[in-house]
Request: fold
Amino acid sequence: PVAMPDEEPQRDEQLLTILGKLKAELPEVSKNLTTLASKLGTVVPKSLIETIARLSGLAACSSFQEFDAAVRESYPSKDEFAKAFDEYTKGKQLREAAFNLSQAWDYLGGACDIDDSVDFQRDSVRSFFAFDSLLKDPTIITVRLESFEKWKKSYVNAYRKAHRAYYQKLKELELSLGTLKPEAKALVKMNTIVELGPPLPTMSGVASDLAAVEKRLYICLDAEDAAIDGSEPKCPKCSWTPSVQAPTT
Reply:
């Protein structure tokens, strides 16, 4: 309410400005929260969905009188309106962090089993990303993301170490294979000499076995320093995981 009638135009203008901003942001808040909730394996609470729907109706008001009547109809008391708007404010705060939370969640989900301690920490950090908890108290979002970043550093170090060791083993195999190639080629040639009789069963596949091993001796361009400190939890160049074992000669 205003003290003087001549203050009403200014009040109405300020209110409509606020409602205009609210009207513009509501669809994005609703959309982003729905997407984030789905990613985190849940749904947006019905109470917040209802609040957003009611606020959408209020945001469409074109005057203070219309707004005042609509608010009183939806919320019998000032405290009830304040409680509903507080829930929306928290949802808006969660929506503002949705991108970073989504990126962190995707990284956690895409990370491979690399080390027992790191894997245990990953599972623990994942439990911190409960949608309802983040919505109830958005102030913990920063702490949750900091916990993720701390875990990520240990994961990056462990992955890079294992990734580097794997390709070091391939380099060693590549050198060993270099010394075996002349012998393998000689065996292949001998297998074609009719006078020597048919080749032994174990010798008949020398050429194909050699080709198969050579094919697997691909050395990743980022073997020394896999680029996994961004949004990718596995090497973007080779997608290596610990389940991939080095071939033997």
Notes: The CA atoms of residues 74 and 80 lie 9 Å apart. The chain has a mean pLDDT of 86.
